[in-house]
Amino acid sequence: MGIQYYVRLIDATKNLGIPYNDDFNSKRQNGVRRFQRKKCSLADEYLRDALKKVEFHSGLEPNDFEKVVAIDVKSYAHILEIIWDEENKKENIATNVKYFCNSTICEAFIAQKEKVIICSGTINSSQIKI
Q: How far is Cα 77 from Cα 123, in angstroms, rounded to an integer?
């Protein structure tokens, strides 16, 4: 649809007494205006840079370092259990996640920095054992 369609539509609603609204995010949210759209995806906005981020943690030996990615995205994985830190039960700190992927039970370490987001879809998210 061309821009003229939206201009005529807004003019028609103004003739009906519906006010024009410059900003739907302001106090007054009723009214008419052309929606602002930005074409981007969740991956473009948030994941792209985070997937590039790599952190190094000290390993078992004195000069040994382990390379850890900040975000680990797994498709077609089913979360079995979130493993919590037993020493700090009041803090609710997750340490690992057990999941099933490619016919194997796997375990992922969670670096204790900020937040852990687990998204398993509408049905599976509520089935995660916590």
A: 14
Pairing of strands 78-84, 65-69: unpaired
Token digits of residue 56: 């190094």
Q: How confident is the model at residue 95 (pLDDT cuts 50, 70, 90)?
A: confident
Question: What are the backbone angles phi and psi of residue 5, rounded to the nearest 5°?
Answer: -60, -45
Burial, 97: exposed, middle or buried (Cβ in 10 Å; 0-12, 13-18, 19+)? buried
Task: Tell me how far apart the alpha carbons of residues 20 and 3 are, in angstroms, rounded to a whole number.
Answer: 16
Residue 107 is given by DSSP the state E
Confidence of residue 83 (pLDDT cuts 50, 70, 90): confident
Domain positions in the chain: 1-37, 38-73, 74-130
